[in-house]
């Protein structure tokens, strides 16, 4: 080989090595069913101890406006994880069944037929990253999950290390040890998912004891009361005040340990179980971060912590994730990594579907053409506070059209409708004045005696208040605009019947 050719190939090799060494690693951590308000970084009064996440927040950025767009089925995890993997919006993703519960899922005009080959792992594989995942099985995007080079999935919701969250951490630790042993210098993307705190919330005995909870399984008895149990949420209700179009979904009637019960003992015990599972997750994350630090990889790794959606557990008299209140529509979201200012806090106004575009931007990887999300790298770098001004959410896993919401600034509108059941309800909240979306039912002396909350007169649903009629009209128009923008295939009474229809 001529000297010039040798020099050329040496330069190529050096450039390739530098590119691999300089590009950041990515650790994407996702819990299953966790309200942001469980965490002290969102509710300083929370009894839940998560020192690892607290340190992560102190070293990085906390998002106060992170959302998952919604669901067209009761298993909210499924569309949420499809959106994360593909970077596409609610009505532009496939379903695991055909025809899908998303009416548009089989129409290539809305959902590309080869979408899986343009999802998170496929994109990063092509860019030279090593990709690995561990998470629960099921209620996810199976075709996208298979794109990871290393897959170690299993549903682990038990109370031991082998049957619980420690198993997921062990998979990541083993993978990192293998990289270390082989001197693997490629950048990595690790999808570090947990099966908890999704029910059944089988907490470890020592953590259950800390939060005064038991792994309750007797449907004919209430769990024991215990002063150590977390207090009731400030927006607790003994029952939701109206049919929200999906009151008989599994999460509302058949979660082991809760079932249809919404009494104080049941809810506080279940919160204790949730907290025990969440603290265990925090412990497992700490092990992985310590390993990355020992390997010298921590400083060059972007770390994201989030959940696939929030959770009610007694808030507004609900138990599950099939609603659009802030405790469930919002998700926890913490990010740390190169260029992110420690101890920073932003609104963000991001969706989980923005993650793929953002990871591509952070890694210098070309985003796929199929990706519809907005990169929030400018927010992470302190250049912007938000990536959008209006947020849309939808849920129609029960009766149709179901629930929709829109948020602009401090104002939020939620509509509920079921033609079959005759349900038609509207809620309007000023979140600056009423952040917990309190209703008139929260003012009941029996409820305030249980929660210790004394709502102000303005902390109610404002939809029927004549003083806010103009704002109501404005938000209803904004909802329609967002439904059109996102190809929502349903319409509410009073809206134009211009919804998109799939091709036969």
From TrEMBL:
<dbReference type="InterPro" id="IPR051849">
    <property type="entry name" value="GAG-degrading_sulfatase"/>
</dbReference>
<dbReference type="GO" id="GO:0015024">
    <property type="term" value="F:glucuronate-2-sulfatase activity"/>
</dbReference>
<feature type="signal peptide">
    <location>
        <begin position="1"/>
        <end position="18"/>
    </location>
</feature>
<protein>
    <submittedName>
        <fullName>Choline-sulfatase</fullName>
        <ecNumber>3.1.6.6</ecNumber>
    </submittedName>
</protein>
<feature type="domain" description="Sulfatase N-terminal">
    <location>
        <begin position="24"/>
        <end position="365"/>
    </location>
</feature>
<keyword id="KW-0732">Signal</keyword>
<keyword id="KW-0378">Hydrolase</keyword>
<dbReference type="GO" id="GO:0004065">
    <property type="term" value="F:arylsulfatase activity"/>
</dbReference>
<dbReference type="InterPro" id="IPR000917">
    <property type="entry name" value="Sulfatase_N"/>
</dbReference>
<dbReference type="Pfam" id="PF00884">
    <property type="entry name" value="Sulfatase"/>
</dbReference>
<dbReference type="GO" id="GO:0047753">
    <property type="term" value="F:choline-sulfatase activity"/>
</dbReference>
<dbReference type="InterPro" id="IPR017850">
    <property type="entry name" value="Alkaline_phosphatase_core_sf"/>
</dbReference>
């Amino acid at each position: 080989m001529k000297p010039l050719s040798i020099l050329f190939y040496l330069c190529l090799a050096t450039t390739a090595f530098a590119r691999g060494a300089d590009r950041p690693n990515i650790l994407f951590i996702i819990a299953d069913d966790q309200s942001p308000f469980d965490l002290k970084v969102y509710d300083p009064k929370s009894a839940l101890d998560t020192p690892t996440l607290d340190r992560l927040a102190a070293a990085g950025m906390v998002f106060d406006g992170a959302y998952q767009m919604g669901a067209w089925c009761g298993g909210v995890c499924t569309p949420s994880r499809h959106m994360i993997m593909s970077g596409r919006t609610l009505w532009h993703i496939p379903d695991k069944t055909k025809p899908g519960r998303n009416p548009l899922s089989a129409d290539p005009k809305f959902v590309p037929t080869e979408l899986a080959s343009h999802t998170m792992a496929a994109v990063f594989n092509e860019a030279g990253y090593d990709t690995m995942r561990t998470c629960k099985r099921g209620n996810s995007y199976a075709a996208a999950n298979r794109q990871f080079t290393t897959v170690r999935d299993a549903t682990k919701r038990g109370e031991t290390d082998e049957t619980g969250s420690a198993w997921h951490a062990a998979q990541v630790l083993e993978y990192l040890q293998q990289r270390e042993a082989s001197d693997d210098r490629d950048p990595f993307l690790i999808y570090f998912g947990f099966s908890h705190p999704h029910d059944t919330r089988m907490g470890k005995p020592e953590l259950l004891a800390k939060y005064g909870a038991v792994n309750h399984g007797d449907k004919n008895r209430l769990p024991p009361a215990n002063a150590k149990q977390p207090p009731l949420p400030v927006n607790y209700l003994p029952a939701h005040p109206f049919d929200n179009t999906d009151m008989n979904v599994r999460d509302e009637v058949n979660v082991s340990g809760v079932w249809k019960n919404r009494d104080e003992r049941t809810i506080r015990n279940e919160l204790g179980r949730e907290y025990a599972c969440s603290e265990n997750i925090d412990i497992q994350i700490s092990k992985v971060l310590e390993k990355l630090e020992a390997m010298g990889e921590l400083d060059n790794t972007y770390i994201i912590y989030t959940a696939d959606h929030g959770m009610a557990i007694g808030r507004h008299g609900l138990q599950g994730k099939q609603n659009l209140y802030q405790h469930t529509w919002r998700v926890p979201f913490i990010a740390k990594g190169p260029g992110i200012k420690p101890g920073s806090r932003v609104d963000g106004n991001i969706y989980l579907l923005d993650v793929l575009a953002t990871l591509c931007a952070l890694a210098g990887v070309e985003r796929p053409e199929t990706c519809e999300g907005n990169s929030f790298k400018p927010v992470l770098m302190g250049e912007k506070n938000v990536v959008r001004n209006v947020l849309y959410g939808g849920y129609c896993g029960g009766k149709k059209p179901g629930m929709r919401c829109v948020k602009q600034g401090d104002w939020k509108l939620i509509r509920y409708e079921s033609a079959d059941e005759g349900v038609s309800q509207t809620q309007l909240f000023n979140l600056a004045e009423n952040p917990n979306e309190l209703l008139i039912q929260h003012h009941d002396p029996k409820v305030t005696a249980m929660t210790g909350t004394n709502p102000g007169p303005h902390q109610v649903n404002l939809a029927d208040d004549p003083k806010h009629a103009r704002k109501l009209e404005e938000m209803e128009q904004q909802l329609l605009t967002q439904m059109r923008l996102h190809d929502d295939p349903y319409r509410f009474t009073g809206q134009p019947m211009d919804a998109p229809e799939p091709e036969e």
